[in-house]
Amino acid sequence: MLVHICCSVDSHFFLQRLREDFPNERLTGFFYDPNIHPYSEYRLRLLDVERSCKKLGVELIEGPYDYKVWLKAVEGFENEPEKGARCEICFDRRFEISAKKARELGEKRMTTTLLVSPKKSQEQLVRTGERFAEEYGVEFVYVDYRSGGGTQLQQRISKEERLYRQDYCGCLYGLTQQRSQQQMPADELYSPVCGNILLGSIEERLKIYERRMELEEEGRDYRIFRQKFLNYRLRFGWVKHKKRVLSSYILPYSTLKRRYTKGRVDFAEEGVGWFNREEIRLITLEHYNRVSGCGYGSLRELIFAPPPLKTDMAVRESVGMGPWDLSALIVLQDIPEGNMEIFIESETYPDVREKLVVL
Ligand code: SF4
Fold this sequence. Notes:
Layout: E1 2-5, H1 8-21, E2 28-31, H2 39-56, E3 59-62, H3 67-73, H4 85-105, E4 109-112, H5 122-135, E5 139-140, H6 150-160, H7 172-181, H8 202-217, E6 222-241, E7 244-246, E8 248-250, E9 260-263, E10 265-269, E11 272-275, E12 281-284, H9 285-292, H10 299-304, H11 309-318, E13 329-332, E14 340-358
Parallel strand pairs: 1-2, 1-4, 2-3, 4-5, 12-13
Antiparallel strand pairs: 6-7, 6-14, 8-13, 9-14, 10-11, 11-12
Bound molecules: iron/sulfur cluster.
Iron/sulfur cluster binds near residues 82, 86, 87, 170 and 173.
C-alpha cells in the first residue's frame, strides 16, 4: 500500500495503526507535499518523516517539490479559509500524484496520513482520495484513527517520540491567515539575503533537528525545550543625508516609534554619534570593526556577510545598549554633519524558540 505522508506527527501514529490493521501489507511512504512553504520548513518536515520511517522500518520515497505547479493550481483561491476550496485543490494535487505513483509502483492500494489530522475534513479527504484512486485504478483505503481516543493517543506518542510538531498546516496562505489572526508576524517568511540564521527561525530549528539526528546516531541523550524570548525582524530601513541614501547597516533590535525620524547628530566622539531624536546612535565602520574584532572593508561586505547575532549584541553593549534596549544603532562609513532622515520598519514581538541540550 502506498501511504501519502504529510508530516511525522500524523505519519508515525498512522503507520503504526495501519500495520496493526493490515499486517500482510508492505507499506511504502510517499512524501509529496509541494504545498509546504518555505522550503526550509519542507526540509524540516521531511527530515522528521525520514527519522520516523527509519524507526518504523518503512521505506520512504520523496516526491518532487514542484511548488510552482501547486501555486498555479491554487491561483484565485489564496484567501479561502482552511477546509475550503483551496484545501480541496491542494488535496487534489497531492492525491493525483500519489495515485500516479501507486500505479507506477504497481501498488493496489493507497491512503493518506492526512486522515488522522484533527484539523482536516475526513469527508473532503475521502471524496478526493476516492476520485483519483479510481482514475488511476487503485483502491483508496479509508481508516478512522481519530475517534475512540485516537487523537489523544497520537498526541502522547508524538511527545514520547519527540517528533517535530509544526504549528501551521503548510502553505503560504494558511500561514499568513493564521499569523494575522494571532496578530503575529509570519516570521517564517523572512529570509535575509546574507543567509544568516535568525533567532526562532525555521533554519534555526532545522539545525537543531539535524544535530539531534547526529546525537541519536552517536547514542547520546538530549532534550529539546522551549524558551520564551523577545524576537526581532528588520523589514526595511534607510538613512538619508542631503536627500541621498547612505550605505548603512542597521543592527538587530533597532526600532523607531513611528518608523521615520528627522534630526541631526548632537555630538560625536571616537566614532560614536549621538542623534538628537529617538535615542538613536550612529557608529562608524571603523568603530564597529574595532569593538567587534571584525575586519570589514566596506559596509556592503558587512551587509551581505554580517557576523553572528552575538557579535552585534556585543557591539550594542559596547555603546551602552543592554539586551533590553530597543534604541536604533546604525553603522555608517562616516558620521555626517547636518540634517539626516532615518527610516526603520521592524517588528519586535514575544516569541518561543526551541533549544537543544545535550545531556
Ligand atoms: S491550508 Fe493546508 S490543506 Fe489547505 S491549502 Fe494550505 S497547505 Fe493545503
